[in-house]
Design the sequence.
C-alpha cells in the first residue's frame, strides 16, 4: 500500500497543524548600526533597506519593534575614521558612542535584552578585530582590551556581551573580570564558530571596517572545517559562555545542527549582511519573491537547530506581520 503523504498537505489548516517549526518574534534579534549625532540617517549602499541611524532615531525604531514583539537587539557602532587608531582606543572611551547608546536604550527600554559586540574592528585603523603588529594579530594583548571593553559595556547596562573577535581565551578572561567587578549577571554570547566568510562584505561597508591589509583567516575558521567549529563551541562552553553563536547561517546549517547536538546551551545563528543582501538583490532583480525567500531562509535556520536568529530582516518581517508576535 502506498502511504499518501499528500493527505497531510491537503489544506492550510492541516499544514499548520503538522508544521514542525515556527518563526516567532521571540526568537529574533535585530542588529542596529549606530552613528553619532542627532536626527541623522545614512543609507548603506550594499544593504538596501538598512540604515545607520543616530541613537534618537534608533529609539523610535526600537519602540516600534518592541510593540511588534521584539525582545532583543544587538548594536554596532559606525565610528568616525578620525577616531580610529592602531590601538583602538575609542573602544574604551566611557563617553563613546556605544556607552551612550547602551545607557539611552536601557533607560527607555529596561526590559529589552541588549547585546553588544565585543571586538576592535569598528575602532581599529587597521580594520582588524585585534591589535595588529608586524603583520600579526596579538592574541593576549587584544584580550586585555576586550576584557575592558566588556566591563565598560556591562557598567553602562548591557545584558549580554558578545565577543566576535575569535581570539583565544577571551570568554574565560571576560567572565572572570565581569565577576570580579560584580557584574555576575551580565552574560556572554560567544561568537564561537565564526567563519572567515565572504558574506561579511556589506557589514564592513556599513562600518567602514574592511581590513586595510591581509584577511581574517588567522583568527576566523576555515569554511572547509566542521570539527574545528565544534571544538571552539565546547571550549567557549567550558570558559563560561551562556550562549554560543554560529556565523554565517545559511551556508553553515550543517554546523548549526552539529553544534545543537553537542551542547545544551542556547544556540544563536547570525544571518549575516551578505545573506541579507543576496536575498534582497535577487528579489529586486525579480529572481525570487522577497517575503517567501526571507521566511524560507529563516525557517531553514530554525529547522537546522538554532534557538535564536540575528537577522537584518527582523524589522521588515515584524512590520509586515509575516511572523508570529
Ligand atoms: C566583526 C564583526 C563582523 C560581523 C559582526 N562582527 C564582521 C567581520 O568579522 O569582519 C559581521 C556581521 C555581518 O556581516 O552581518 N567583529
Sequence:
Amino acid at each position: 500500500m502506498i502511504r499518501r503523504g499528500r493527505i497531510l498537505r491537503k489544506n492550510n489548516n492541516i499544514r499548520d497543524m503538522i508544521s514542525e517549526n515556527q518563526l516567532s518574534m521571540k526568537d529574533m534579534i535585530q542588529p542596529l548600526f549606530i552613528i553619532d549625532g542627532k536626527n541623522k540617517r545614512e543609507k548603506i549602499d550594499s544593504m538596501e533597506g538598512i540604515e545607520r541611524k543616530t541613537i534618537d532615531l534608533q529609539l523610535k525604531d526600537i519602540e516600534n519593534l518592541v510593540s511588534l514583539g521584539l525582545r532583543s537587539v544587538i548594536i554596532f557602532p559606525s565610528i568616525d575614521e578620525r577616531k580610529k587608531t592602531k590601538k583602538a582606543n575609542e573602544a574604551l572611551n566611557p563617553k563613546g558612542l556605544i556607552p551612550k547608546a547602551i545607557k539611552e536604550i536601557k533607560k527607555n527600554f529596561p526590559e529589552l535584552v541588549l547585546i553588544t559586540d565585543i571586538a576592535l574592528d569598528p575602532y581599529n585603523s587597521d580594520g582588524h578585530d585585534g591589535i595588529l603588529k608586524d603583520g600579526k594579530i596579538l592574541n593576549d594583548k587584544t584580550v586585555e582590551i576586550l576584557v575592558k571593553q566588556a566591563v565598560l559595556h556591562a557598567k553602562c547596562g548591557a545584558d549580554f556581551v558578545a565577543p566576535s573577535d575569535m581570539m583565544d581565551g577571551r570568554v574565560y578572561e571576560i567572565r572572570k573580570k565581569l565577576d570580579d567587578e560584580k557584574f555576575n549577571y551580565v552574560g556572554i554570547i560567544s561568537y564561537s564558530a565564526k567563519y572567515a566568510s565572504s558574506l561579511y562584505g556589506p557589514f564592513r561597508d556599513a562600518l567602514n571596517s574592511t581590513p586595510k591589509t591581509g584577511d581574517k583567516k588567522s583568527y576566523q575558521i576555515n569554511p572547509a572545517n566542521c570539527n574545528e567549529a565544534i571544538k571552539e563551541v565546547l571550549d567557549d562552553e567550558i570558559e563560561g559562555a551562556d550562549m554560543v553563536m554560529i556565523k554565517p547561517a545559511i551556508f553553515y546549517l550543517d554546523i548549526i545542527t552539529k553544534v545543537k547536538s553537542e551542547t545544551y546551551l542556547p544556540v544563536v545563528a547570525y544571518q549575516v549582511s551578505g545573506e541579507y543582501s543576496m536575498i534582497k538583490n535577487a528579489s529586486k532583480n525579480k529572481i525570487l519573491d522577497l517575503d517567501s525567500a526571507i521566511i524560507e531562509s529563516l525557517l531553514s535556520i530554525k529547522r537546522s537547530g538554532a534557538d535564536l536568529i540575528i537577522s537584518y530582516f527582523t524589522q521588515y518581517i515584524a512590520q509586515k506581520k509575516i511572523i508570529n508576535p
About this structure: The chain has eleven helices and twelve strands.
